[in-house]
Design goal:
This protein is α+β, with helices and mostly antiparallel strands. It is built from four helices and six strands; from the N terminus they run αββαβαβαββ.
Length: 137
Amino acid sequence: MEKARQLGLDLIEIAPLADPPVAKIAQFQKFRYEESKKERASKKESGGGLKELWLSPRIAEHDLKVRLTKTEEFLKGGYKVKLTVKFKGREMAHPELGHRVLQNTLNLLGDKVMMDRPPKFEGRKLSMIVGKTKGGK
């Protein structure tokens, strides 16, 4: 503590439970800033978030392929993807169209993805969650 006072810095306890306890002489505000910076960086690296893509029960083939390309980008980034088919008006009378779109999506993605949550209705939306396969392709 005397050495820290002489230098005009703070004595920061790093590992209090270690034997002997570990301490560091530094500016406390600077130390807190660097620790928060490390914490923010680790949150970014972990990924594991969820991205959502909207589809229509009458989506065109080209539009579907564009959405699949975006899905693959998200999966490479470490995200899971929620594929949602939105129904409007009388489209709700034909839920099999939404199931067909999601099944077609899975077929086009192939072995790159696995279904984390099967298709499920949430009001007027039919959604499923896909993630990267364990093999890491």
